[in-house]
Specification:
The protein is of the alpha/beta class. It has two domains: 213 residues, P-loop containing nucleotide triphosphate hydrolases (Rossmann fold), CATH 3.40.50.300; 88 residues. The protein contains ten helices and twelve strands. The strands form two sheets. It has an eight-stranded mixed β-sheet with strand order 3-2-4-1-5-6-7-12. The chain has a four-stranded parallel β-sheet with strand order 9-8-10-11, with helices on both faces. α4 links the parallel β2 and β3. α4 packs across α9. The longest helix is centred in the first third of the chain and has 14 residues. The protein is globular.
Length: 317
C-alpha cells in the first residue's frame, strides 16, 4: 500500500484525529471477526510441506521481509528445501525481487495456490506476510514489530496503524522485535500480557557492505520504506556523514523527476547518494536514468537469540 503514513498514528496516545476516525474502523473489526469464524480450508488437504508465516499487525516497516530471509537461511543451513510465498501485488514487487536474491519465490494471486505448487517440491514454505489470511493453517506464526514505534497509538486502521487489535497476539507463536528501543522491557511486558508463553526474539540490522563506502565522503540518503527514520538512524550509527535525508511513501514508485531532483541535491552538496536495497530495486525497474549515481546499503538481520530461534523452529516443524 503506497501512502504517507499519518503522523498521529505513531503518537503514544490517540489524538483527536484518531477518535474522529473511530467509526471508520468498524468494517475492519467486522472483517476480522468474520475471518476468525471461518475454518481453515487446508486442514483437510494432504500437505506434506510445513508452513511458516512472518507477518505483522502494524501496517508496514516492521522488518518482516528480512526476518523471512533470515528464517530461510537458518533452514537452508539445516538442509531444508525452502521456498518463499508472497501474494502477487504489483505494489510489493520490490519485496518479491529482494526475496528472489535469497531463494525461489512463488507469487500467485491466492497464497493457497502457491502452497499447492510448493507442496510438490519443497520442505518448508515461508510466507512473507499473510497472518491475516485464515485460509491457511500455518505451522508457525511470527509477528514483527519495530521497537521504535511498536503499536503506535494502538488503534485500528484508519484511526491508527493496526490491522488487528493487540490482543490478537494470543493467536501467534512468536514475536520479532527489531530495534533497540530504550523501553524494550516495557514492550516485552506488554506483549506477555496477552500471551505469557509467546516466544520473543530481538533483532537488529548489520550493514554487510560497509567497507565499500568511504566514511569521509558526504552523503545524501533517501528511502521509501515503512519506517524511513530507521534507515537514517542505522546510517548515523555506522558513522555515515549524512548531509540530507529524504523520505518517500512506502513502496514508492520513483520517476525521472524524483531521481533528477535527488541528483541535483547531491550536486548542490557535492555528496554521494545512498538508499536501501528495496528502493534501489524499484528504481532499477523504472524508466529512471542515471541509476549509476546511486548506491545501496545492503543490510542483514541479526537475531540476538539465534540459537534459541533455531531450536524453536526445529521443535515446531
Amino acid at each position: 500500500m503506497k501512502f504517507n503514513k499519518p503522523k498521529f498514528w505513531d503518537k503514544k496516545k490517540p489524538t483527536i484525529f484518531s477518535f474522529l476516525l473511530l467509526l471508520l474502523t468498524v468494517p475492519l473489526v467486522i472483517n476480522n471477526f468474520l475471518r476468525q469464524s471461518k475454518k481453515h480450508n487446508n486442514k483437510s488437504k494432504n500437505y506434506t510441506i510445513k508452513t511458516i508465516c512472518v507477518g505483522n499487525i502494524y501496517l508496514g516497516g516492521t522488518g518482516k521481509t528480512p526476518s523471512a530471509i533470515k528464517i530461510s537461511q537458518i533452514l537452508n543451513d539445516l538442509k531444508y528445501r525452502t521456498v518463499f510465498i508472497k501474494k502477487n501485488h504489483s505494489e510489493t514487487f520490490d519485496e518479491e525481487k529482494l526475496l528472489k536474491k535469497y531463494g525461489k519465490v512463488l507469487s500467485y494471486s491466492k497464497r493457497e495456490n502457491s502452497l499447492l505448487e510448493a507442496n510438490k517440491f519443497y520442505d518448508v514454505a515461508i510466507f512473507d506476510d499473510g497472518l491475516q489470511d485464515d485460509s491457511i493453517n500455518y505451522n508457525l506464526k511470527f509477528v514483527c514489530f519495530n521497537t521504535n514505534i511498536f503499536i503506535g497509538n494502538g488503534m485500528l486502521i484508519p484511526a491508527g496503524p493496526l490491522r488487528e487489535k493487540v490482543n490478537s497476539l494470543k493467536k501467534y507463536d512468536a514475536v520479532f522485535l527489531n530495534g533497540d528501543a530504550e523501553n524494550m522491557n516495557d514492550i516485552i511486558t506488554q506483549i506477555k500480557k496477552y500471551k505469557k508463553d509467546i516466544k520473543i526474539f530481538k533483532s537488529e540490522y548489520n550493514l554487510i557492505n560497509l567497507n565499500s563506502f568511504d566514511k569521509k565522503e558526504k552523503y545524501i540518503a533517501f528511502a521509501g520504506i515503512g519506517f524511513p527514520k530507521n534507515f537514517f538512524k542505522t546510517l548515523i550509527y555506522n558513522n555515515f556523514n549524512i548531509v540530507k535525508f529524504l523520505e518517500f511513501p512506502d513502496h514508492y514508485n520513483y520517476n525521472y523527476k524524483n531521481i533528477k531532483k535527488i541528483i541535483d541535491i547531491s550536486n548542490d552538496f557535492n555528496a554521494k547518494i545512498l538508499t536501501t536495497e528495496k528502493d534501489y530495486e524499484r528504481i532499477k525497474a523504472s524508466d529512471c536514468q542515471n541509476i549509476d549515481y546511486i548506491r545501496y546499503v545492503k543490510m542483514e538481520l541479526k537475531i540476538k537469540e539465534e540459537k534459541e530461534l533455531i531450536d524453536f523452529i526445529q521443535k515446531n516443524l
